Amino acid sequence: MIKDCILIQQFTGKTYTYRAVNHLNGKQQYLFYKKSPVTKENHGDIAGQMMVLPFFNVDYPKDGPAMVEHIFRKVFPSYGYTVRDEQINLAKHMYETLCNGKISLSDVPVGLGKTHAYLVATIVYKLFHKTESLKPVIISTSSIELQRAVMKDYIPEISKMLMAHGIINSPVTCVLRKGKENYLCDHRLNDYVSTLDPDKKKNSEYLALTELVESQEIDLDEVKGISNYDKRKICVNNNSCMTCKKQSRCRYQKYMKQAKRIGYDFQICNHNYFLADVLRRKRGLSALFPDYTHAIIDEAHKLKDAANQMYGTSVRQDEDTEKYKTIITQRARVFLNRVVVNLEEILRLLPEKDRKLVADIKRNIRQMKIFNCSDIIYWLEEPFSKGQTTLASVPITLSKELGQDLWTNDISFLLTSETIAVDRDFNYAKNELGMKQVHKDRIIEISKGTPFNFKENCLLYVAENMEYPDYDNPKYIASITDEAERLIRTSNGHALVLFTSDKPLRLVYQNLNERITDIPLFQMTRGRSDALNAFRASGKGVLFATGSMWEGVNIPGGYLISFNYCKITISNA
Q: CA torsion, points 427, 433, 437, 441, in degrees to nearest 10?
């Protein structure tokens, strides 16, 4: 296939005949015959014959908006997709934003198809702007589930359809970027395995670890059969690469070198990784991504939360953490200053070759100094589970800093989410993200209505007579358990049971796992990426989850069918 023309081969019994057919208007013409079928070596000459035909490229879209329209109205429906005018308009809007170098804020409801919209808009932009085709487009999301879906489902599927219709000649390429702790360290793996006692280690885990030594796997989220504890023992350390003597043979270093090369159409990451690159460039450090001029921020309502972590000094904003007001007294400031002075003296005496320790101390000094600044907001964090209390902070001027770092350059942004606007008003999001300093003509706002009739197709049920929400109260957990069981049995499985916190999820799952034996139950815990796949494979199972499962996850098919569908949400409100 070349653009809108296809080469058709037909065997007559003695020879192979060939004709060109325009699949858009049906026009065709006989070309030649051969005694043996053509090979790839002949494709170049045949393409030359097809490209001079009078009907070649006649009805093919000649500009970006027309191509977007063609893909959604002609290409996708041939694979069973429904045509949605609002989705097409959204994709056109996104395409124009990319062309004009502006910033788009789009509030798009669930089910409209915003992921297809921004991927098609971006692919078409690259198709009609060859000078930009070598630079990657950054796709930043909040959830790992959406990142995986974009990389493993959306992009390969769209790529296949566009290639089959002659719109692109080669597959769309992408690479998933994560923090170091998500990747395997060869050196730490070898050291760890050498210390294990096969008689004391669980057999399946020991075999998985020894097999990993010989494998080429690099992404720990894709490794099966090992515990989260083991993953922490063999992942890349924050500064371990600085002093490692095996860098030339390290699979992680090879992966990073490959990931940073120019040539990928999309670089996919989470918001924290995206902002880490922004901050590194700001501080004059080496960038995490190749240079880019376009970025897509999906689940954009979570960008400010990521900025709180990346611009602040908190170790992590955990869902199971209680935050407390606190005051740093003058006496406390004196002690903080003493710590800084002592660390600076230690740093002065350290040899430069001890790069890892030097980097650790410099980071600690920087964090300590922050708490002596007057332009910060600070608080204490106390984990619900046993753990170390953390003193955390963010700059008072965070929104202003974020605005300066993100929106005052020449990069074009597509920010999209289901909840970035309040009644079609984007002012809150713009204030939070520091967009007030951006000229109003550079920002384009668009809101879309839902394509579904929720009033006719959905039922909202609110349980009565429940215990007062308190995760430490056994009666409250028992009431949740009883109500969830009743709903699960009513729907015969096919359910998501969503929680706002890990603790009640764990307790309710344990209770129901003992009581429900005829319906498969699955618990999605941190680091367990296979629970969703196991749920899909079960046919009528129930998935207990929290965190990212509230958004960014698509479960098509009959796993959650309309008649038996049951989405149970458990919150502390």
A: -60
Task: Please tell me what DSSP assigns to residue 2.
Answer: B
Task: Report the SS3 class of residue 23.
Answer: coil
pTM of the model: 0.78
Both tokens of 226, joined, read: 């090992």
Nearest-Å Rg of the Cα atoms of the chain is 28
Q: 138: part of which helix (H) or strand (E)?
A: strand 137-141
Q: Which SS3 state, helix, strand or coil, does residue 542 take?
A: strand
HEC string of 442-454 equals: HEEEEECCCCCCH
pLDDT at 551 over 70: no
Would you mind telling me the total number of residues written for the chain in this entry? 573
| One-letter identity of residue 420 | I
End-to-end CA distance of the chain: 57
Q: Is the dihedral of CA 178, 184, 185, 191 positive or negative?
A: positive
CA distances from residue 226 to 70, 206, 234, 527 in whole angstroms, order as listed: 47, 8, 11, 11
CA distance 523 to 535: 9
Tell me the two tokens of residue 300.
Answer: 């954009």
Average pLDDT of 221-246? 82
Dist CA 337 CA 470 (whole Å): 41
Give the DSSP letter string of 243-284. Answer: H-S-GGG-HHHHHHHHHTSTT-SEEEEEHHHHHHHHHHHHTT
State the amino acid at position 17 in one-letter form. Answer: T
Residue 406: band (very low, low, confident or very high) from pLDDT cuts 50, 70, 90:
very high
